[in-house]
Design a protein that fits this description.
heterodimer, A: six-stranded mixed sheet, four-stranded antiparallel sheet, B: 116 residues, mainly beta, seven-stranded mixed sheet
């Protein structure tokens, strides 16, 4: 069975400072991992995905995430936050080769001017 | 890139009526689409998997007679909320994936349903 835990429900950072959104996963199989972003009353946009290739994954808008099997983590980072990054972020796991996505509870990112 | 279009974006209906939500894959074929429900400030919960040309697979606890899913073509799935009640008010989001390769799911922009 797969599960994902987002360790922080809310994160606040100042504009221009680094962003760290934490995610831990549990999977019986080789997992695929994703980060999606959701702006208010909108659908989800894929930021990046890990599917057993390089462990450091670069995504859109300057985001990246590192898959650490030993720590069962897939934390999302960005060197410098922008006001437009304020949104809800979801970490997602699926068993490799399946499309049944299990969503984390989300982290709301607030960017302060 | 792959685009999933969902319509309507917002709908208000009276209790007891039915509402249909459409999910279209605009530039790719999708044999499988997924319907999610999201309560305010909560995560997405998978409701059902919609399979083109066959019956949908519902998650435990989801009433199949209440949430009718039809996937009549490779580019269109519909979710009909029948005899809607205020507790059905929610944000419904569909998703689909490109058939080939290891493509991730692409999501529609969601439908805000309000039942009065």
């Amino acid at each position: 069975a797969q599960s994902v835990t987002q360790l922080d429900s809310h994160v606040s950072v100042s504009e221009g400072t680094p962003v760290l959104l934490r995610c831990n996963y549990s999977s019986s199989y080789s997992p695929s991992l994703f980060w999606y972003v959701q702006h208010p009353n909108k659908g989800l946009q894929l930021l990046l995905k890990y599917t057993s290739a390089a462990t450091l994954v670069k995504g859109i808008n300057g985001f990246e995430a590192e898959f650490k099997k030993s720590e069962t983590s897939f934390h999302l980072t960005k060197p410098s936050a922008h006001m437009s990054d304020a949104a809800e972020y979801f970490c997602v796991v699926s068993a490799s080769g399946t499309y049944k996505y299990i969503f984390g509870t989300g982290t709301r990112l607030k960017v302060l001017a | 890139g792959a685009v999933v279009s969902q319509h309507p974006s917002r709908v208000i209906c009276k209790s007891g009526t039915s509402v249909k939500i459409e999910c279209r894959s605009l530039d790719f074929q999708a044999t499988t689409m997924f319907w999610y429900r999201q309560f305010p400030k909560q995560s997405l919960m998978l409701m059902a998997t919609s399979n083109e040309g066959s019956k949908a697979t519902y998650e435990q606890g989801v009433e199949k007679d209440k949430f009718l899913i039809n996937h009549a073509s490779l580019t269109l799935s519909t979710l009909t909320v029948t005899s809607a009640h205020p507790e059905d008010s929610s944000f419904y989001i569909c998703s689909a994936r490109v058939v080939q390769g290891d493509s991730p799911l692409h999501f529609g922009n969601g439908t805000r349903l309000t039942v009065t």
